[in-house]
Amino acid sequence: MTNHCSFFFSLSISLFFQQKEPEPNVVTPATPSPTTPIPTPTPVPMATPVPMATPVGYKSLPLSKWSTDDVCEWLKDLGLTDHIESFTENEMVGEHLLDITKEDLKELGVKKLGHQKTILSRLSQLSK
Predict the structure, then answer these.
(1) Domains of the chain, CATH where assigned
(2) What pLDDT digit, counting tens, does each position of 4-24 carry?
């Protein structure tokens, strides 16, 4: 009886060592066969370049082409927002500013000498 037990024991040991346990959490890449074509990667298109921003509004226009809104924006940039309402009511556009005088400014309600000088000097710079 020992021979039978010994045989079965040897057989079970032999079978035990023949079994191969799979390695846990290992992904093996698929190996392409010689007849399977390898896919060519699709080229990624380049991004379209975005044009540089150009100045918008009165800064990109000649003084003669300014609208009333452009004139008001210019007054804002000069820090003279007190006069926007008057320039709007009088529909002042850039063309009117080309030959504006100190008297015209007074009529528009620009009473402060400093504001008059600022407007006139900036207009003379723009006209050059």
Answers:
(1) 62-127 (1.10.150.50)
(2) 555 555 655 555 556 556 556
